[in-house]
């Protein structure tokens, strides 16, 4: 399968590398066609199906897309990717709209809206599925690093799209438990959770942790 990964930072490179390891063709997209990070990533992979280009190139290339851009810049990145290039495709949104300007992180959108919803509203012909924003990117592709089975979540309006993403998370990324939270409005919860994740990270002095849903019998 072909994947377009929008974003050339650590999250984008980590996810793109895992997809290549799973045997998929991947194009990493940035604002510029010759983004140095994307060029270096493609050379590092050493395989012909690790490609790089613009946001629009990657969006046109992929059958499934990942949004791995900075949350506050995601909508602009999607616009550069182009609605026509994303039409009819699944977009897995891993971003959170965080303001990092002080040590006390905050969200630029919350409570009555979310980044996931904003993307879905602006691109109604794209199947947006929110996922993987609740864990460090290394855990997102190696959940078995943790000593117990933990949960990852999906939010989106299309059951078929969520089923496709769930299959990918299990078969390629190694997740054993994927919890369907509901429609795209549930992106609010997982985006707001990242503020608690930040508290956990500082308290645990580690990036390598996650949560699990424990139900009563």
List the keywords.
single chain, 217 residues, alpha/beta, Rossmann fold, 8-stranded mixed β-sheet, two-stranded antiparallel sheet, 20% strand, globular
Question: In words, what does this structure look like?
Answer:
The protein has 217 residues and is α/β, with parallel strands linked by helices. It has a single domain, classed as 3-Layer(aba) Sandwich (Rossmann fold), CATH 3.40.50.720. The protein has helices at 10-21, 36-45, 55-61, 74-81, 83-86, 115-122, 137-141, 159-171, 187-204; strands spanning 2-6, 25-30, 50-54, 64-67, 90-93, 98-99, 106-107, 127-131, 152-156, 178-182. The strands form 2 sheets. It has an 8-stranded mixed β-sheet, with helices on both faces. Strands 6-7 form a two-stranded antiparallel ribbon.
Short description:
The chain has helices at residues 10-21, 36-45, 55-61, 74-81, 83-86, 115-122, 137-141, 159-171, 187-204, and strands spanning 2-6, 25-30, 50-54, 64-67, 90-93, 98-99, 106-107, 127-131, 152-156, 178-182. It has 217 residues and is an alpha/beta fold. The chain has one domain: Rossmann fold, CATH 3.40.50.
CATH class: Alpha Beta
Order of helices and strands: EHEHEHEHHEEEHEHEHEH
| Overall pLDDT score | 96
Radius of gyration of CA atoms, rounded to a whole number:
16 Å
Query: Which class best fits the helix and strand makeup?
Result: alpha/beta
Would you identify the CATH architecture? 3-Layer(aba) Sandwich
Residue windows where pLDDT falls under 50 for at least 5 positions: none
Output the strand order for the largest sheet.
Answer: 3-2-1-4-5-8-9-10
Number of domains: 1
Overall spatial form: globular
Quickly count the helices. 9
Helix content: 25-40%
The CATH superfamily name is: NAD(P)-binding Rossmann-like Domain
Strand-residue proportion:
15-25%
If you consult CATH, what is the topology?
A: Rossmann fold
Number of extended strands: 10
Largest sheet: 8 strands, mixed
- Intertermini distance: 40 Å
């Amino acid at each position: 399968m072909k994947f377009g990964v929008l974003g050339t930072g650590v999250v984008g490179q980590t996810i793109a590398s895992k997809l290549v390891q799973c045997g998929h063709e991947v194009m990493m997209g940035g604002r510029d066609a010759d983004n140095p990070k994307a060029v270096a990533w493609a050379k590092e992979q050493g395989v012909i199906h690790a490609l790089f280009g613009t946001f629009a190139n990657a969006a046109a290339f992929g059958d499934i897309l990942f949004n791995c851009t900075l949350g506050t810049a995601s909508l602009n990145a999607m616009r550069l990717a182009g609605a026509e290039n994303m039409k009819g495709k699944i977009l897995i949104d891993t971003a959170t709209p965080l303001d990092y300007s002080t040590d006390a992180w905050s969200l630029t959108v919350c409570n009555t809206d979310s980044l996931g919803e904003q993307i879905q509203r602006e691109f109604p012909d794209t199947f947006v599925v929110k996922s993987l924003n609740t864990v460090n990117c290394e855990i997102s592709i190696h959940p078995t690093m943790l000593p117990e089975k933990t949960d990852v979540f999906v939010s989106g309006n299309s059951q078929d799209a969520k089923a496709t993403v769930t299959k990918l998370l299990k078969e390629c990324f190694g997740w054993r438990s994927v919890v369907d939270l509901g429609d795209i409005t549930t992106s609010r919860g997982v985006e707001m959770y990242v503020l608690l994740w930040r508290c956990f990270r500082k308290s645990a002095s580690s990036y390598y942790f996650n949560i699990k849903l424990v139900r009563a019998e």
